Amino acid sequence: MFSANIVSCTFVDNTARLGSVIALTNAQNLNLANNVFQNNGSGSIIDFYKTSDASVEELGSRGYNIFAGDFSASEVSRLTDTDIQGTDLAASLTLVDGEYQVVKGGPAYEHLPANPAVEGITFPERDVMGTIIDYSRPTHSGACQMVYEEGASVDYTQGVFFVNEDWYGHQNSTVNFLTNDGEWIYRVVQKENPGVELGCTNQYGAIYGDRFYLIAKQAKDPGASITGGRLTICDAKTMKVLKQFVNISVDANGNSNADGRGFLGVDEHKGYVGTSNGIYVLDLDALELTGVVMGSENAGGSAYDQLYGGQVGNMVRVGDRVFAVHQDKGLLVIDPSTDRVEQVIEGIEGWGFGSVVLSKDGNLWLSLASTSGSGQADTRIMKVNPYTLQTEVIDLPEGIYGPANSWYAWTPDCFCASQQQNVLYWNGGNSSWFSGYTVYKYDIDKNEFSVYIDYNGDPDGWQIYGCSFRVSPESDEAYVSLFKGFGDPTYVVRKYDADGHQLAEYPMIQNYWFPSLPVFPDNAEPVVTNPDPVNMPLDAPVEISLADIATDADNMDAAIVKTVRAVSDESVLKAEIQHGDLVVTPLSEGKATVTLGINSGGKLAEASVDITVTGGTGIEMAAGDRLPQLHYTVDGKRVDASQRGLHVVRMKNGQARKIVVR
Hints:
Blueprint (H helix, E strand, L loop, with lengths): L1 E6 L2 E3 L7 E6 L1 E7 L2 E3 L5 E6 L9 E5 L2 E3 L15 E3 L6 E4 L2 E4 L4 H5 L34 E4 L9 E6 L9 E6 L4 E2 L2 H5 L7 E9 L2 E8 L12 E5 L5 E5 L14 E8 L2 E6 L2 E6 L4 E5 L10 H6 L3 E7 L2 E6 L3 E6 L4 E6 L6 E7 L5 E6 L7 E8 L6 E5 L20 E2 L5 E5 L10 E6 L4 E7 L8 E9 L6 E6 L7 E6 L5 E6 L7 E5 L7 E2 L5 E4 L4 E3 L5 E2 L9 E7 L5 E6 L2 E6 L3 E11 L2 E12 L13 E5 L12 E7 L4 E6 L1
Parallel strand pairs: 1-4, 2-5, 3-6, 4-7, 5-8, 8-9, 42-49
Antiparallel strand pairs: 1-12, 10-11, 13-14, 13-40, 14-15, 16-17, 17-18, 18-19, 20-21, 21-22, 22-23, 24-25, 25-26, 26-27, 28-29, 29-30, 30-31, 32-33, 33-34, 34-35, 36-37, 37-38, 38-39, 41-44, 43-47, 45-48, 46-47, 48-49, 50-51, 51-52
């Protein structure tokens, strides 16, 4: 019993030895992809033989097979609409100088998935599985490139994904996977879901809660034969498609009015889908689009303005707010509990924003960009406190260009942050649009700017394509996609350490990949430490810091969302999260446990804190040896225990606590 795939084989002028071109004994199933069968006599193409009733006969197809002549096989055989068969194909294929060529304009030429548009058309360089085809062997059995065991699995948790725009006008977008061993697995969505593809110009991908959310601008490329979706949701560990949405939103006539842009996981039940026309709410439990974030829609106007005047770029959640960059309006500050824009932070001096990035220290960083789509970038960046919304503009030193932006044809851009260091990265240059030669690094703690990678004058002509640069959250190593120009299908991925030293290079098969974004698997669970028990007075609320209760090896601690799940006795106290910390308001004397929800990139955990509310006006702690001894303000001044404000309390056992007396 066995199962096999035969890919990129050419069977021409064969004499059937056993009455067929392919004869299989005790085969469970056989799948074909991108094969040609021509002039093989009067016998059948495929026959199954079995010596046991336990064998299961099935012939399947992954498409793009040409069967010239009579086709016969098992009754359970199946073809796809991308296969072609018929007796009129006999003259379509010839062998010239060791290459099988297909007659231009013939049925086989019209059928094949890709062909150079020149006379003397040859077969494509790659099959539909991404394997390079070798046509140099004019054997009667053909140039077989790959026969592999069916069911061979890929561990998609050990490596990095690359989301590709792919070749517009020819095929839908793709996702490749680079394993930790340096092996490429190409077109993994098609590989794991035969007959299913992404949409057209898929620019964004994000893993949240063990699902991979892929956002395309349109549902189908003009040159593709399969309709994908503007939103595709996959299982991040298997890459099996869970659901596709052809459209995100439609007008009164049923036509799409929102091209896909980005995605953000808001909480375990909800996600936001950014588009060219606002932000849409995705129910993560039902996998249904349920509404729009009020105030995020574009301002209307012409068809061009609809697509390129009011786009939503990338989005970040910090604490109890979501921040989204809007091309025209600025930085949208959204209340995710109501799905409404509560306020807008506008750009300065005529500049808008290109994208927003969260750094390790918990601050937001914005690139300053032209809103017109010209690609012009300012020589400054802006810092925003996500809780107070206070802003600060930082001037870049001479020779350091601002982050390149891409509102003209939106991509996420290279502006990103390290999780291991308090560092930002971006690409930039004096060219307003295609700044693919220099990557800069900003050490926030040291306030130092430097050149991280420089491809100017590279002897091999390499440069960064678009926004394809990201830093691994665990290893702190940067992955960057390089190409040599828009007319050259040669691509390579390089890996660098935190100091910009090249660690590895991973060549790729030739294809116009136009990579958009590296995406790293989310494997680690959040690690939680419960806060110490707290005693508090009845007459004043207390703020308990939650800064150190949760950490995650492959997600920023500053991005971890904390919520109040439950209070064991709501008659004793009220608990809520404010600015990432727990604020407890006493209601009566007694004891209660506050259960906290921890959400790190869609992976969930819980923490709890035991609180005792006592009568009296002083601040008391759990046991006699921990009673407060001295009270200070944050600037070190001794104060009375009942004075309102932020206290640093030194206990008798030498420990210190931060307490807010209201």
